[in-house]
Automatic annotation (TrEMBL):
It holds the Pfam family IclR_C. It comes from Candidatus Pantoea multigeneris. This is IclR family transcriptional regulator. SUPFAM superfamilies: GAF domain-like, Winged helix' DNA-binding domain. PROSITE patterns: HTH_ICLR (PS51077), ICLR_ED (PS51078). Residues 69-250 form the IclR-ED domain. Residues 1-68 form the HTH iclR-type domain.
Length: 255
C-alpha cells in the first residue's frame, strides 16, 4: 500500500478501537499488530503523521491520539448546525426521488419545518419552512415523539388533546400505540393525515455532541396498496440517514 493508504489505515483505527475523549489512545504495538507491517515502517509512518499534525503522542503514556490539524479541521466543520450539514444531502435526495423533502424538529406538541426541498413530482401541497404541524399527526413529528417514553408523551398531552383528521391518532392512547410501532420499525409513516392524498415517511438522526435531533422526511402521493409506501423510497431515506451518520458523526436515534 502507499504511504497515504497506510496513513488512512492508521486513522481508521481510532474508530475501530473506539478512541474518544478520555480514552488512553493507541499504543505503538496495537498499531503495528493492526497494520501487519514491519515495526520500522510503522515507526517512520507515525513519525511523519505526528510531524504533520495528523497524530499527537502523549508525553507520558506514549499513546497516539488524533492530531491538532485533524481536530481543528473537523471542529470547524462539525461546529455548523446539523441542519446546515444535512440540507445539501436532503436536497439531492428530493431531486433523485422526485418527492418533497423536509427537515423538521420537535417543539412541544408541534413539528416545526426547518427546510423544504422541491422534488420533481407535481403537487400543489407544500409546507414551507417555519410551518408548524401537529406532531401527533405527521411522520416527522411521530418519529421524534417516539424518542420519548410513553410517560413523557402523556405528560406532554396531559392538559389537552386535539384530534386531527380521521387517519391520525384520535387519542393519546392511540398515539402511544402508533409510537410503539414506530419504535419497532425504526421509521414513521403517515398516510392521508395532514392532507388527504399525501403520505410521508420519516427517520430521525441526532448529533449527540450538540444535542440537536431532527426528522428527515419524504412526502409523496398516497398509495392504496399496502404497505402504503414505495420500498425503494424507504431504503433511500434510510441509506441517506446512515451516510449522514458515517460522514458527520451524527447518530441514528435508538427508538
Amino acid at each position: 500500500m502507499t504511504t497515504l493508504e497506510n496513513a488512512a489505515s492508521v486513522l481508521k483505527l481510532f474508530r475501530r478501537f473506539g478512541v474518544t475523549q478520555g480514552h488512553p489512545g493507541l499504543t505503538f504495538t496495537e498499531i503495528v499488530d493492526a497494520l501487519r507491517l514491519p515495526k520500522s515502517t510503522v515507526s517512520r509512518l507515525l513519525s511523519v503523521m505526528e510531524s504533520e499534525g495528523l497524530l499527537e503522542r502523549d508525553s507520558d503514556s506514549r499513546c497516539f491520539h488524533p492530531g491538532a490539524l485533524l481536530l481543528s479541521i473537523s471542529g470547524s466543520y462539525l461546529a455548523a448546525p446539523l441542519v446546515d450539514r444535512v440540507t445539501p444531502v436532503m436536497l439531492k435526495l428530493a431531486e433523485r426521488t422526485g418527492c418533497m423533502g423536509y427537515i423538521s424538529v420537535l417543539s412541544g406538541r408541534e413539528s416545526v419545518i426547518l427546510r423544504m426541498f422541491h422534488g420533481g413530482q407535481f403537487t400543489q401541497v407544500m409546507t414551507p419552512p417555519g410551518s408548524r404541524i401537529p406532531a401527533a399527526s405527521s411522520s416527522g413529528g411521530r418519529i421524534l415523539l417516539a424518542q420519548l417514553s410513553d410517560e413523557e408523551v402523556r405528560e406532554r398531552y396531559s392538559d389537552e388533546w386535539h384530534p386531527g383528521t380521521p387517519s391520525s391518532p384520535q387519542s393519546c392512547d392511540d398515539l402511544c400505540v402508533r409510537l410503539a410501532e414506530v419504535r419497532k420499525k425504526g421509521f414513521s409513516l403517515a398516510c392521508n393525515e395532514t392532507v388527504f392524498g399525501i403520505s410521508s415517511l420519516a427517520v430521525s438522526i441526532s448529533n449527540q455532541q450538540f444535542g440537536d435531533s431532527m426528522a428527515l422526511c419524504l412526502s409523496f402521493l398516497s398509495q392504496s396498496e399496502p404497505p402504503g409506501y414505495p420500498q425503494a423510497l424507504l431504503e433511500a431515506l434510510q441509506t441517506t440517514a446512515a451516510d449522514l451518520m458515517a460522514k458527520y458523526g451524527a447518530e441514528r436515534n435508538e427508538l
